[in-house]
Amino acid sequence: MRSVVIILTLLFIFGCQHSHEHTHEESAIDFTKLYEYDVEQKVEELGISLKEPTPPVANYVNAVRTGNLIFMAGKGPSLPEGGYVTGKVGEDLSVEEGYEAAKLVAYAQLGALKAEIGDLNKVVRIVKVLGMVNCSSDFGDQPEVVNGFSDIMVKIFGERGKHARAAVGMGSLPRNIAVEIEMIVEVAD
């Protein structure tokens, strides 16, 4: 009787291992077939120049990966010549200027994401975006500002760039930046 229990236990263990391996193989995504175009080439065609991410200014990292998800730290609107777009949208900056600042954040996030995963063609989907707009308490056009970020994600990744999102107002942001945006991205193995 004891040897029957041992044999059944071994069969169960090896059966589960085989089943797990098979499931993992099926869930692996071939990132070369995600897009009908080259994402990196699309970035170039749009005239976007991705820069290496700047080192964090405090005790954090630019990205954390867990499984197939990348959690990107919040980034601000870095100007090509250095510095940031600063001020409160609706007071110091127009909604249109806030939208352009959010586009700059998209470029910064894409640069940090590329540094993390090596190839933007590995992006399965932009999952979630949190857009924070530096504005007064009576400002209500945060979604229009954060659209600058979202529109870039959709231009680059198509349907895979559409994401869940929150666009909220903040009384202040670090160093008085106009916009800060973080995102969660699913990537292929």
Folded structure, characterized:
With 189 residues, this protein is an alpha+beta fold. It has two domains: 2-31; 32-187, RutC-like (60s Ribosomal Protein L30, Chain: A, 2-Layer Sandwich). It is built from four helices and five strands. The chain has helices at residues 2-27, 39-45, 95-117, 142-157; strands at 63-66, 69-75, 123-134, 164-170, 179-187. Strand 1 (63-66) and strand 2 (69-75) form a beta hairpin. Helix 3 packs across helix 4.
Number of strands: 5
The CATH superfamily title of the largest domain: RutC-like
Averaged pLDDT, please?
Answer: 88
Predict the CATH topology of the largest domain.
60s Ribosomal Protein L30, Chain: A
